[in-house]
């Protein structure tokens, strides 16, 4: 009997994790994309500054 309870608890825990990932996953992904975009913008700005200094 105790074995069945442990299995049920494991399944519930996995379900909670899956639900959490489903909710939070897209947000995290968006944050990561935003950070990547910000990095690209900073790179371009830095390159433009270098160009302006050369003139």
TrEMBL record:
Residues 1-55 are annotated as: Disordered. Residues 41-55 have a biased composition (Basic residues). Residues 1-22, 28-40 have a biased composition (Basic and acidic residues). It comes from the Archaea. This is Uncharacterized protein.
């Amino acid at each position: 009997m105790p074995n069945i309870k442990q299995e049920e608890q494991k399944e519930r825990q996995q379900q909670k994790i899956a639900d959490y990932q489903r909710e939070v996953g897209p947000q995290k992904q968006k944050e990561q994309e935003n950070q990547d975009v910000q990095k690209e913008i900073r790179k371009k700005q830095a390159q433009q500054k270098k160009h302006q200094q050369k003139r």
